[in-house]
């Protein structure tokens, strides 16, 4: 089958790695922004076969990992209220805030449902008309348009017991904030696949121009990732920094305008706190006034309160690409996927979870 | 969070420009069938097209031509003659 098996074909791997070794002519630091890439790189054992000159660091591209403790605490606050049922993506379930996790809230009686799609939360609202159903939503540009479509659908169905708590974040402002840090010293960016499906490869042009950074959009198959890394190494060798698209079958230059329009019809940019990165201007997406009746923050009069990061957790440094999980004294000791201290250990796409699963020595 | 495997369209219900009825696709991959929303897909799919799915919604209809170009580039790279894409114009 054209779009899958050929991109999985192992016969490409050895020659691609050889080609990379031929091209790479100095040490390169490349950040893979997306958590799905982090996992794919580990799962396919790519780290072991890549040349030593290549240093891959993981970025802030796992939406659960960058959700602030303040947001998690607000989620728990809502979940614990009478007559409320919350719906979440499964990754969020065990993420610790300052006041426990949604898993703990559930064990103390809160109604927490794990859903596959925001539309499933809508179905819950129809099934339990006597309750308030709240979708606690974290995610990037891949997720936000879906939630926008769900809110429009809720309006069409005239549901008055459905709201969304938007802890959404958008990628480009966070990447720019990261790159403003002179310590990061990146040679290239492996741009996220499906975020780019929505925002388009063009979204990285300002990064290439303003920061002189090579950007290549990559798919998720091993050969996609190798191909993207080769393109980055080639740019470094030729001292160019432009945006290239290594995933053109799924990402166009302009992205998905229909999805972006839905997103901006329903949501507007706001300043937002990222775990580990601090407040980044215009990096969050809040529900617009026009759809205020679907905004859980309004309906439940939520005020976010600054919460401390878990003690000893280095997630912040890891999300910025400055530290490795192995640098954390809690890694694999007090902090494991079953008893996570920080969010990077909880999400299946978190950097600490990926290292725990694949790279423990 | 991203499901990397594209799914093949078996059936399409509803109409691209009519939002009064649900716009739904039945898709299949590796023997698993699913219903997905088509509200925000960039190109309305035909039966046999492949879709990228995220949390129950199709977000992109794959482009056969681009996939071919992609593969050609890969083959060239694997053959050690990389040197094809022209970066800043978007698609290679
Ligand atoms: S190992 Fe645990 S405590 Fe340490 S940085 Fe990772 S998530 Fe935080």
Brief synopsis:
The complex is a heterodimer of chains A (361) and B (92). With 361 residues, chain A is an alpha/beta fold.
Radius of gyration from the alpha-carbon trace of chain B, in angstroms: 16 Å
In CATH, the topology of the largest domain in chain A is named Rossmann fold
Which CATH class of chain B applies here? Mainly Beta
Shape assignment of chain B: elongated
Poorly predicted segments of chain A: none
Q: Kindly, what is the distance between the CA atoms of the first and last residues of chain A, rounded to a whole number of angstroms?
A: 38 Å
- CATH class annotation of the largest domain in chain A: Alpha Beta
User: What quaternary form is this?
Assistant: heterodimer
Greatest contact pair? A-B, 73 and 44 residues
Beta-strand residue fraction of chain A: 15-25%
* N-C termini distance of chain B: 27 Å
Helix content of chain B: 10-25%
What is the tally of beta strands of chain A?
11
Description:
Chain A has 361 residues and is an alpha/beta fold. Chain A is built from 17 helices and 11 strands. Chain A is 38% helix and 18% strand. Chain A has a 5-stranded parallel beta sheet with strand order 2-1-7-8-9. In chain A, α3 (35-43) packs parallel to α17 (351-358) and α8 (144-156) crosses α13. Chain A is globular and about 65 Å long. Chain B has 92 residues and is of the alpha+beta class. Chain B has one domain: SH3 type barrels (Roll). A 5-stranded antiparallel beta sheet of chain B has the order 3-2-1-4-5, with no helix packed on it. Chain B is elongated, with a radius of gyration of 16 Å. The two termini of chain B are 27 Å apart. Residues 82-92 of chain B have low confidence and may be disordered. Classes of the chains: A alpha/beta (361), B alpha+beta (92). Chains A and B meet through α2, α3, α7, α8 and α10 of A and β4, β5 and α1 of B. The structure holds iron/sulfur cluster.
């Amino acid at each position: 089958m054209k779009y899958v098996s050929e991109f999985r074909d192992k016969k490409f791997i050895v020659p691609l790695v050889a080609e990379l070794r031929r091209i790479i002519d100095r040490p390169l630091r490349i950040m893979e922004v997306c958590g799905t890439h982090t996992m794919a790189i580990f799962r396919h054992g790519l780290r072991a076969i890549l040349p030593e000159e290549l240093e891959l660091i993981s970025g802030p591209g796992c939406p659960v990992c960058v959700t602030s403790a303040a947001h998690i605490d607000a989620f728990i606050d809502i979940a614990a209220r009478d007559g409320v049922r919350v719906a979440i993506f499964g990754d969020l379930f065990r993420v610790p805030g300052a006041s426990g996790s949604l898993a703990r809230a559930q064990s103390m009686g809160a109604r927490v449902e794990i859903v596959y799609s925001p539309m499933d939360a809508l179905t819950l609202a129809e099934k339990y008309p006597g309750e308030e159903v709240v979708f606690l939503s974290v995610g990037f540009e891949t997720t936000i348009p879906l939630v926008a479509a769900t809110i429009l659908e809720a309006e069409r169905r005239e549901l008055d017991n459905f709201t969304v708590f938007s802890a959404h974040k958008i990628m480009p402002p966070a990447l720019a904030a990261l790159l403003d840090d002179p310590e990061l010293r990146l040679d290239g960016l492996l741009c996220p696949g499906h975020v780019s499906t929505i925002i388009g490869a063009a979204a990285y042009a300002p990064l290439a121009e303003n920061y002189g950074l090579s950007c290549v959009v990559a798919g998720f198959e091993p050969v996609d990732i190798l191909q993207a890394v080769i393109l980055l190494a080639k740019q470094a060798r030729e001292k160019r920094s432009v945006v290239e698209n290594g995933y053109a079958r799924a990402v166009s230059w302009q992205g998905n305008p229909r999805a972006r329009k839905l997103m901006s019809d329903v949501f507007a940019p706001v300043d937002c706190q990222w775990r580990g990165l601090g407040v980044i201007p215009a990096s969050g997406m809040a529900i617009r006034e026009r759809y205020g009746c679907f905004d859980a923050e309004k309906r439940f009069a939520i005020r976010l309160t600054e919460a401390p990061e878990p003690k000893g957790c280095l997630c912040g440094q890891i999300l910025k690409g400055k530290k490795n999980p192995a640098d954390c004294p809690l890694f694999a000791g007090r902090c494991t996927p079953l008893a996570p201290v920080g969010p990077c250990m909880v999400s299946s796409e978190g950097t600490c979870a990926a290292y725990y699963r694949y790279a423990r020595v | 969070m991203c499901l990397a495997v594209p799914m093949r369209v078996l059936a399409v219900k509803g109409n691209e420009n009519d939002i009064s009825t649900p716009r739904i696709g039945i898709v299949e991959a590796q023997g698993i069938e699913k219903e997905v929303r088509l509200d925000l897909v960039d190109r309305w799919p035909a039966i046999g097209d492949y879709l990228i799915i995220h949390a129950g919604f199709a977000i992109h209809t794959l482009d056969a031509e681009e996939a071919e170009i992609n593969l050609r580039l890969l083959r060239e790279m694997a053959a050690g003659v990389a040197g094809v894409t022209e970066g800043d114009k978007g698609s290679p």
